[in-house]
Amino acid sequence: MTLLHVLILAIIQGLAELLPVSSSAHVILAEKLMGFDPSAPEMTFLLVMLHTGTMFAVIAYFWKSWRQTYFSSWENFKQQAGFIIVATGITGILGLTLQEIIKHVFFDGASHFEIEQLFSNSKLMAAALATVGVLIILSSRFDRGQTGELNFRRASIIGAVQAFCLPFRGFSRSGATISTSIFLGISRQKAEEFSFALAVVLTPAVIVKEFYRLIHTQNLQHTQIGHLIWPSLAGMLFSFMAGLAALKWLSAWLEHGRWYLFGIYCLVFSGVVLALS
């Protein structure tokens, strides 16, 4: 893999990650077109590093509004942190349960099974893209400018929906969680803020998991790790810059009633993935 490959993937990741169109599906398709195996540990690690860049973009972009929403007072912080903890906990429990179900039902309980094996399945990715596309369109039709706030019940439902984004590449996390929030009557701004707050909490755990998988699976030496990390750090920087641009785009379309267009795009891209599979 050359630095040009990393740069292309970083730009795709940065633009698509923070839009509800599934960055993973776009990056995986790009990897296949370049001749790479998306399920290989070094590729999943690169993808996670690109996610890290967009995570920092999220923090930079939302910090001002989060400071007002989450850090305005100690009581408010405890309440909002509780919502995030509940949603993330449910995501983890259901996500792991779903992984075990997939392992035992579809892979006969194979001891060597890893959820990353699903990432290169184009038909599964296309189905996930189509599903989230329909979800986005329906939530847009349902949206009447709600002004609802978060509570523990709503946070739990959002966390449960988010769990399905973990094993199925193409099922956009931001698209699913924001759409679910709109269905539950939460205001667009609160839905967006909460969705990306969850992303910031999840990303470090995913990074640690993929780094462990990279070392454990490949039995890499320190020199080999350095060889992979430096290009990934460059990609992280580019994905950070592209991510900031994407967030401005997302906020504008969400606030001006163009949310459904992302759903249409997901449906079209689902067809593209099927055609190229």
How many domain modules? 1
Amino- and carboxy-terminal Cα gap:
22 Å
Class inferred from helices and paired strands = mainly alpha
Unreliable residue runs: none
- Give the overall pLDDT as a whole number: 83
Strands, count: 0
Major sheet details: none
Beta-strand content: under 5%
Q: How would you describe the shape?
A: globular
Number of helices: 10
The helix content, as a percent range, equals over 70%
What pattern of helices and strands is seen along the backbone? HHHHHHHHHH
Main location: membrane
Function: Catalyzes the dephosphorylation of undecaprenyl diphosphate (UPP). Confers resistance to bacitracin.
GO molecular function: undecaprenyl-diphosphatase activity
Enzyme class: hydrolase
Structure, explained:
With 277 residues, the protein is mainly α. The mean pLDDT is 83. The protein has one domain (3-276). The longest helix is centred in the last third of the chain and has 34 residues, at 222-255. It is globular, with a radius of gyration of 18 Å. 78% of the residues lie in helices and 0% in strands. The protein has ten helices and no strands. Pfam families: BacA.
